[in-house]
Amino acid sequence: MSKRYYTIYDLIIALSDDLNLIKEDLVANTSYYEEQYKSSNNLESLLALAACVLLEGDYNKAHQILDTAAKQISQSKSFFLWYIIGIKYQKTCKYKNAIEAYKLARQQEDSSRTVKYFLHIKTLDCLVSIREYQQAIEYFTDTSSEIPQDRLPKLICKIGFCYEQLNLTTKAIECYNQVGAINCEISLICDIWGKILQGNYESLLDKIETLNAQYEENTQSSFECKYLKSQYYIACGHYDEAFKILQVLISSYGNQEYYLSSLGYLWMKCKNFSDAFLAYLKAASFNQHIPEIWYNLAVIYSKVGQCESESAFNRAKNLDPTNVLPMNLEVDSELVVVRMDWSMFGQVKKPVAMKKKAEKRVNKIKPEKIEITQPEIIIPTPIKSFQQPIGPLPFIQSPIFYKNQNIFTLQKCLSYFEQYNKNNVVKEAQSPTDTLAAEILTKMNLPCKRNRRT
Q1: Nearest 5°: phi and psi at 271?
Q2: Hey, what domains does the chain have and what are their CATH numbers?
Q3: What pLDDT is stored for residue 306 in this prediction?
Q4: Cα(188)–Cα(178) distance, rounded to whole angstroms?
Q5: Is the pLDDT of residue 248 over 80?
Q6: CB 166 within 8 Å of CB 322
Q7: 225/329 Cα distance (integer angstroms)
Q8: So which domain of life are we looking at (predicted)?
Q9: Of 185, 235, 257, 242, which is closest to residue 215 (Cα–Cα)?
Q10: Among 75, 119, 314, 412, which residue is least crowded by beta carbons within 10 Å?
């Protein structure tokens, strides 16, 4: 079967929309543009090659190719260069760098309208990723007239999420109702969510079932329909029904941090501190960049009189540069909501950046075929929270960085919370803490024992 060859515009759109191209076609295009550049020194071929390599997920090689292009392309014809650089930074979670690159791309004369509106969409995504919610709202207001009508519903939904994060619920409801009135992919889910925020639960369960029926079982969309249903039950105060759904969801694929955070919220409603702590801890192991999760861990620490609450709180604030979270932590502080951005319905929310070891492995299998110099692209240094692993808490480390010697620390922590439950809660915990502890330790490939010492 003949391979399909893509123009640079095709590749740019594939990158912009996160499309999955056929692997054989992508490999053929990579080889084709590599040969084109070698034989003719054509800069468009070099940029197309960079796009192919990004689509393959080899970010190290893409960076090297873009460095070479940056050295050769004049400033008057560098729109594609800066746009691809922006996408590369965004895919590796360096969102501030990406915003700067997109800003430079907008200043170029060779930007076509087709690709230019993608700049606005990508910039908006980055602003939300670094929690610049007010700035994202203002940016959308300024640029929405340049974005095609069929692209607007998801962006309006994202703005609704921004208003939610800023606790401007009335404004958020207006956005969700606006999308709900449009015939689009996410209209029904926005209509449902807007009514949940309003407290208008009439006929919502039927609408959720209608939404769920549109998707195949065991797909990300079907999981999120079930998650939406659990949020409906939580809003109605039917915690038992929500708990049943979430217990099933935590064994499914994708977005575990949201499912586990809701589970932690329910455990706290039952005054079960040990299982609430473990649910949020496990949520952090799936995505350590959500400050609300660390804030909630700090709240649980403070409620049982542990000094480690300050360290967890500081970690949360370090991830919250725009001060969306409460400024202070008190003994009577309440949990904050870990909200889902419904504009990304059906997608795994956590950004996936290739690990260094994986990059080295890819480079060994596919050695560089082009001799490339290493000038640095001048972009401001990204914020630390997206560049470096977060340091450990004094009492219990982030699960991602566990070592064997920390098992006893985890066991000690769990024992403490279990004892607190026995002393302060009359009703026994509804779920055995050992099960969740074993799940965490198993995930980290560490040995665990069901019968721990207290």
Answers
A1: 60, 30
A2: 1-130 (1.25.40.10)
A3: 77
A4: 11
A5: yes
A6: no
A7: 34
A8: Eukaryota
A9: 185
A10: 75
